[in-house]
Hints:
By secondary structure, the protein is mainly α. It has helices at residues 2-12, 23-41, 69-115, 123-126, 130-161, 168-192, 194-203, 212-215, 220-234; strands at residues 51-53, 60-62. It has a two-stranded antiparallel sheet with strand order 1-2. α5 (130-161) crosses α9.
Amino acid sequence: MVFITADRYNVIVKGVSAEPLTSGGAMMRIAGTWAFTLAWCLPPFFGWNRYVPEGNMLACGTDYLTETELSRSYLYVYSVWVYLFPLAYIIYSYTFIVKAVAAHEKGMREQAKKMGVKSLRSEEAQKTSAECRLCKVALMTVTLWFMAWTPYFVINWGGMFNKPIVTPLFSIWGSVFAKANAVYNPIVYAISHPKYRAALEKKLPCLACATDGRDGGSDAASTTTTEASEKTESA
């Protein structure tokens, strides 16, 4: 999610000055994701914290009950780099993405006014403003991240500093929300990206989630990127 956010920030905020994403760059990001994952998942196997059964005895999680400083230090650092930093980065990036789209939309309206037309967009694209579409995507992205990982964050810190609140039932919710994240995240990103929907419709029509008019009112990210590029080239 962080790399996807970084790519959208690179394309929309930096515009034509941004370095385009290549196949090699995409592979490097995928490799980086796995390297980052292994870097944080392997230490408990070697003594820095450990994995223990959760309250329902059906899954394992980090040990938040051991009171040694070594064990707790892993949870402190893990919380910052795996939860707080990605959350802050996503919020930061989408804040500037929304600002960039709003500024672009304002420029489009001013240009249309100078040309004496109502809008430079097609009638279909006018139905929903780019700002509104992007705000919805940004809000959903941040909300889903928060929903997926906040339960684990609360459980771990509650286990360290307020053990009575971590009951077997309470400890279940962390794994439920986190694992559900792997299901709804791809769906959300597919729905919000018209190129993905177009490819899905071509390869697997039965699974496509295309809208009427072949996505005439496509998502703000792609719309803004295309229009910004065209406007810069014409200028």
